[in-house]
Amino acid sequence: MSNYKLKTINRNTFLCLFTCVCMVFAISCNDDDNAKEVHDPDKPITLTSFFPDSGRLSEMIIFDGDNFGSDPSLIKMFFNAKEARVIGSTGKRMMALVPRLPGDTCEIKVQIGNKEATFGDNFFRYLIAASVTTLAGNGTGDFSLGDGVLDKATFTPVYIGIDQDFNIFVSISNNNLVRINEAENSISVVATSDQGYTHRCTPYANPVTNVLQMGSESLR
Fold it and tell me: What does the pLDDT average to over 60-73?
């Protein structure tokens, strides 16, 4: 007798997927029928609910309310200070993608023209998914800043630190300290051996002031 494995999904996941499919279908029908709902600047934007209430980068979130209009290019949405990409709207329901690293607890704000609205006490919980990826280098250990472009740079790291803005600071074997910003795909030197820096000093960002600090090799 053949063995079969039944894969199940929870109810919330199913409802989210079903809602997304229905919304895409509804948006497609509106486009086909040329039935466009226009945002009325004389009326307020109404926000009633969103689903799911937590998620990771680029997860699709469904928002219900009123007076969105059906042109997503006119709608701006923010998770805290990070702008999200709005990919569809029917006027009463819209879909957006969660932006990168907006913060653990996010206030959601919608702007259309000179009107804006927030969800008040209903916050979105951003979930950080840990993964191991190559930021820079090709395994040779040669040093190159790659004209400031991160994915073209190569270096040998010694110590690594990070600040509250997710800048990565790396002490490298040629006695330089570099700053890496993955979102900007950039790398730059912030301290050199000519300034007295040595790669044996561990970069450390103060968690209160967010000021970068380095220790000293001297015992005196």
Answer: 95
